[in-house]
Amino acid sequence: MRVEPEPHRFQFHIENPNSHRSPTLGLWHVSQYLILACLLAVSLTGCSKKAATAAAPPPEVEVAGVVQQDVPLYTECISTLDGYVNAEIRPQVSGYLMKQNYQEGTVVHKGQTLFEVDPRPFEAALEQAKGQLAQAQAQLGKTKLDVARDTPLAQQSAIPQAQLDNDIQANESAEAVVAAAKAQVDQAELNLSFTIVRSLVDGIAGVAKGQIGDLVGPTTVLTTVSQVDPIKAYFAISEGEYMKFAQKISAFASTGRRVGEQKILELVLSDGTVYPRKGWVVLADRQVDVKTGTIRMAGAFDNPGSILRPGMFGRIRAVTGTAKDALLVPQRSVVETQGSYSVAVVDAVKRVSIRSVKTGERVGQNWIITEGVQPGEEVIADGIQKAKQGGEVRTKQYKPAGQGD
Q1: Looking at the whole model, is its pTM more than 0.70?
Q2: pLDDT tens-digit profile, the chain (405 residues)
Q3: Hey, how many other C-beta atoms are within 10 angstroms of the C-beta on 339?
Q4: Handedness of CA 238, 240, 241, 243 (dihedral sign)
Q5: How far, rounded to the nearest angstrom, does the alpha carbon of residue 144 sit from its chain's CA centroid?
Q6: DSSP 58
Q7: What are the b/e assignments for 351-361, b being 16+ CB within 10 Å?
Q8: Are 221 and 91 in contact (CB under 8 A)?
């Protein structure tokens, strides 16, 4: 009989720590030490985080003072520049273009030859008209002689009176033919002169649209000459704004330019620079656009050197009033959230208070605040995302763009 060995059984023996039967360290001791080590590690980690948090300095922000001063209020409108006069240069006769006598993009003067149309057909027409005039004049001379010869004969009854009447009628007809022939000659001379296409105004001539050899006519635009000194600036204002200044605008338009106090317009160019010369109001359109509720205006600016060109965009700005004792803060200090505005105010102990404010006009890089701040207070202009309600910050003075050390 075969006896199978019993399978090995694993047994854990937990030794009573109060027992002195064995000096060997048991499993219970090991687990206790592991738990203590973990608790100690967690405790040390938490202490290190608290120490690091306690040691972190307050965030640094840039602050600007709330300034109180009188501020001019401006109205700004998008503007498009155009020539004071834009003359489309067209030939007044049809023919083949033979010459271009100007350099594109340069200043030309009134009466200067810009193009030449082939004159030969018009020279021939002029010669033909002169020949017809000569024939008519010869016929007129004959009829005059007939009248002079037959008048005494008719008085003496040597010839019938009817013959003299026919001579007189033929003479009158010949005079009319001569007059018509002279008109034909004048027209032919005029057409021949039209083969020289001249500038109608002083200004800058644009790119030629007609090329040598083209068949051109009165409907062909060869180029455009624009008078750019002064230059016009077109812009649109609302009906309400127009009514505020209707009397002034009417006075400016009626009295014209060259009066210093009437130069109230400023032109801000597309690169943000302000044109150094102020402009004046030239005209207001005859009606308000019923679709947009605006009225088109035109101003003008002196433009020596032709720096400004037709087609340029800019903004027309004019002073429309003054805000007395306005409170100004940098625009970047104001935070807009769903139509509401707020600023972060830093008090004397460097603590932050988030306040709701009411805003007025924007003036340059600043914003007028009508409610919510007081003169002399400081608001955060840079680093506002670091600030929290009631939090402490470190401050330094804000310097707007373009105002370096």
Answers
A1: no
A2: 444 444 444 444 444 444 444 444 455 454 555 555 555 555 555 555 554 455 578 889 989 999 998 888 878 889 999 999 999 999 999 999 999 999 999 999 999 999 999 999 999 999 999 999 999 999 989 888 988 887 888 888 888 888 888 888 988 998 999 999 999 999 999 999 999 999 999 999 999 998 999 999 999 999 999 999 999 999 998 888 888 777 776 666 666 544 444 788 999 998 889 999 999 888 888 889 999 899 999 999 999 988 999 999 999 988 877 888 899 999 988 998 888 999 999 998 899 999 999 998 888 788 899 999 999 899 999 988 888 888 888 888 888 765 554
A3: 5
A4: positive
A5: 72
A6: P
A7: ebebbebebbb
A8: no
Q: Which long-range contacts (CB under 8 A, 24 or more apart) does 321-326 make?
A: 321/72, 321/73, 322/70, 322/71, 322/72, 322/73, 323/70, 323/71, 323/72, 323/73, 323/360, 323/361, 323/368, 324/70, 325/68, 325/69, 325/70, 326/68, 326/69, 326/70, 326/71, 326/360, 326/363, 326/368
Determine the 3-state secondary structure of 337 from DSSP.
strand
DSSP assigned state of 25: -
Nearest C-alpha neighbor of 206 from the set 86, 331, 30, 384: 86
DSSP string across 80-126: EEEEEEEEEE--SS-EEEEEE-S-TTSEE-TT-EEEEE--HHHHHHH
* The residue type at 284: A
d(CA 155, CA 168): 14
